[in-house]
Amino acid sequence: MVEGSEFPFLAVKYNVQGVPHTVINEEHSVIGAPSEMEFAREILKAVGK
Amino acid sequence: MGILKDKDRNKVQNLFKQIDNDVTILMFTQETECQRCEMTRKMLEEISGLSDRISLEVHDFVAEGDLAKKHGVDKIPATVLLGDKDYGIRFYGVPAGYEFNVLIQDIRDVGKRNPGLSEAVTAELAKIDEPIHLQVIISPT
Predict the structure, then answer these.
(1) Among chain A residues, CA nearest to B122
(2) ipTM value
(3) Residue B1 pLDDT > 60, yes or no?
(4) Nearest to B135 by CA among A23, A39, A42
(5) What is the domain count for chain A?
(6) pLDDT attached to residue B141
(7) Is B120 among the domain residues?
(8) Is residue B81 one of the residues assigned to a domain?
(9) Which residues of A touch B124 (CB under 8 A)?
(10) Are the beta carbons of B132 and A3 separated by less than 8 Å?
(11) Does some domain include residue A2?
(12) How many separate domains does chain B show?
């Protein structure tokens, strides 16, 4: 959990436009608050499964 | 005194009754404390006082740089939640506003050694066989 306004360089680095903004392994982004299952599938997608 | 309001304190105390295992909170600040570090530390001091199962260790990010590194802490204020093992839970920044609820729920989950996910989601996540780095970027509400 990262407070974007306290660490603005990260918000800039990941091009955060709205929150929550989740970065998976530095390169995949999930915008908004998906369900737990949707989120699990996003993680699997990020690792190619 | 106190950062928590009475009604919040009671709510948190009730929730913490579900905790049946020890939780250690590591907080990283520094000698010349930034305002947000101080806020975080005071908040955690109050929270950890609400259950005998919770202990708080305050560390110096600079003087104890090796410890910070060991826990992957690269910025402060940082809050690390530990149970029997490190579940990888970190909070960077003041866990206030909506994040306060998330912090409290995470402490409870670690204390129960149970993240409260459904069987279906747990089964999906079991397919992962490598470390995953997640950063949830939020803003104060």
Answers:
(1) A40
(2) 0.97
(3) no
(4) A23
(5) 1
(6) 58
(7) yes
(8) yes
(9) 37, 40-41, 44
(10) no
(11) no
(12) 1
